[in-house]
Write a structure and sequence with these properties.
Blueprint: H1 2-91, H2 96-141, E1 149-154, E2 157-163, H3 164-167, H4 177-191, E3 197-203, H5 218-236, E4 244-248, H6 261-267, E5 269-275, H7 278-287
Parallel strand pairs: 3-4
Antiparallel strand pairs: 1-2, 2-5, 3-5
Helix pairs in contact: 2-4, 4-5
Length: 288
């Protein structure tokens, strides 16, 4: 019994030592594995950096080659230009005064180009204003039958065509009450544009005039219809008479041939022409 007790006491330290060593070994083994993983990651990062550095060096070398090639081309062109100028001087192709004249011509060409661009900008601005005017007119007049009134822009000029069926009775030049309402709407838009000048034109078909003895022919009728409209715009709606003019075109400016009753009805019209502001255009020319 004593022997067993002694043996147990003797083996206990050995067992404890063995247990402690195993735990320490496992801990060191885990630490080693962790360090080894970190080392492998750092090795991967280092290789990626070296690869990136090599790629940047390759790109830099390629760019330097392109720069060297371009510099050679520039040097070649400079040399050729110098030789060409020397040949021109030797051959006396152009004198110094001629060279100066060419230089001035080139400068003038640049000025002309700027001038053309300015004119194009002015034309574009005028076109925008014309389209705004057309939209305002159509909005003011509303849903009137297109056969009775037509508003359009043609070659930079705004036209308002009003059918004589709406404005006048056959062979007459007194404006109808219905037409006065339409003219009032047109006048409202024109009055908001005080710088606008316009012409009222009377047009007829080619049927010979037979009516009032005071009128000789379609010329007289077209003029009287134009002046009737102008008076309404001035006296009833307050438009500035200095901004208006009246004209009769008779039968000599038809929209369509006078070969059918329908076409003749189209040609019988009164046209309001928004006149281009030529004085401003000429001022623009004078500044150049």
């Amino acid at each position: 019994m004593k022997f067993r007790h002694v043996l147990l006491v003797a083996l206990t330290p050995v067992a404890l030592f063995s247990c402690v060593s195993t735990k320490k070994f496992k801990a060191e083994q885990e630490k080693y594995n962790t360090l080894n993983d970190s080392y492998a990651k750092l090795q991967g990062d280092l290789k990626a950096c070296e690869d990136a550095k090599a790629e940047e060096a390759r790109k830099k070398a390629a760019l330097q080659s392109e720069i060297d090639a371009l510099n050679k081309q520039i040097a070649y062109l400079k040399e050729n230009n110098t030789q060409a100028l020397k040949q021109l001087q030797d051959l006396s192709v152009i004198s110094s005064s001629q060279a100066e004249s060419i230089k001035k011509s080139m400068e003038n060409m640049g000025a002309k180009d700027n001038y053309i661009q300015t004119l194009q900008q002015q034309i574009a601005r005028k076109d925008s204003l014309n389209m705004a005017l057309v939209m305002n007119l159509k909005g003011a007049i509303g849903n009137l039958d297109d056969k009775d009134i037509n508003i359009k822009v043609d070659k930079g000029v705004v036209y308002i065509d009003i059918s004589d069926k709406l404005l006048f009775k056959s062979g007459k030049f007194d404006v109808t009450e219905e037409a006065k309402v339409v003219l009032g709407k047109v006048a409202t838009v024109l009055k908001n544009q005080p710088d606008i000048e316009f012409m009222v034109e009377g047009h007829t078909d080619n049927v010979a005039y037979k009516g009032n003895a005071q009128l000789l022919d379609n010329w007289d009728l077209s003029v009287k219809r134009a002046t009737s409209v102008v008076r309404i715009l001035q006296n009833q709606y307050g438009l500035d008479p200095m901004k208006m003019s009246a004209a009769g075109r008779g039968e000599y400016l038809p929209v369509v041939p006078n070969d059918t009753p329908e076409n003749k009805a189209v040609n019988r019209r009164t046209r309001i022409v928004i006149l281009p502001q030529l004085d401003q255009f000429f001022k623009l020319l004078e500044r150049k």
